[in-house]
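User: Design a sequence. Structure:
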């Protein structure tokens, strides 16, 4: 069955969020709202960024929405519900999620099983191990610049020669749009139980420079969902 992008999105939101019913009403409704409104999730599929049989490390995983989304995509594809012309979604062999917030990890563990697994930890300290794809969505700016540099070096070390790093950051050079997106991000963090932590942004040119110095080839894509924000997805490839 060939679906439209909007129909596929709704199908995947339904499949992914259904997993969170066992984790409580907050987890379920947060999943529906985030997956239904954030353009990055659908973009990962449209661009075919997640290869088949990949080991994925999701740092700052929250309640495991990326894992739920990727599993829902594969389920929909195998049921014949996909878009003509879109690449087949990869079937990960392992999805490891790490987050600082214990309540989020508990929700992830309640909702998702193999090949997903979750642990509480600080990305500044936890062992990254080895992965084919590392994802960090909207988290790097919560640690200071030296810690960001260290995390990025360790991401590079965790990847194979053809590895992929996907992140979304705010462009600190975007003026009022950056201030607005940063305010929204901190507000969401507050209601998720993270308080109001300080943030440490960089201009987009600086994000690219740091990643290129580590040997990545960097592609950028605006990821605002039509809103006046300064969010940018960075697709950083090795090899």
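Assistant: Done.
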């Amino acid at each position: 069955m060939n679906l439209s992008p909007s129909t596929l999105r709704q199908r995947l939101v339904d499949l992914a969020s259904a997993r969170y019913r066992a984790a409580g009403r907050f987890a379920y409704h947060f999943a529906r709202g985030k997956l239904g409104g954030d353009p990055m999730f659908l973009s990962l599929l449209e661009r075919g960024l997640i290869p088949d049989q990949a080991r994925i490390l999701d740092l700052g995983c929250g309640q495991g929405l990326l894992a739920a989304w990727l599993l829902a995509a594969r389920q929909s594809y195998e049921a014949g519900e996909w878009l003509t012309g879109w690449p087949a979604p990869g079937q990960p062999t392992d999805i490891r999620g790490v987050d600082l917030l214990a309540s989020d990890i508990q929700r992830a563990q309640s909702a998702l099983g193999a090949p997903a697994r979750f642990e509480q930890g600080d990305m500044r300290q936890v062992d990254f191990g080895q992965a084919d794809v590392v994802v960090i969505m909207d988290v790097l700016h919560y640690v200071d610049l030296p810690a960001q540099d260290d995390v990025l070096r360790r991401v590079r070390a965790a990847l194979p020669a053809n590895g992929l790093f996907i992140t979304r950051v705010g462009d600190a050079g975007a003026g009022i749009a950056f201030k607005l997106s940063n305010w929204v991000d901190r507000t969401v963090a507050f209601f998720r139980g993270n308080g109001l932590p300080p943030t440490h942004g960089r201009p987009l040119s600086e994000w690219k420079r740091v990643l290129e110095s580590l040997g990545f080839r960097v592609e950028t894509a605006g990821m605002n969902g039509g809103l006046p924000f300064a969010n940018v997805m960075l697709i950083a490839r090795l090899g």
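The chain has one domain: 5-237. The chain has a mean pLDDT of 91.
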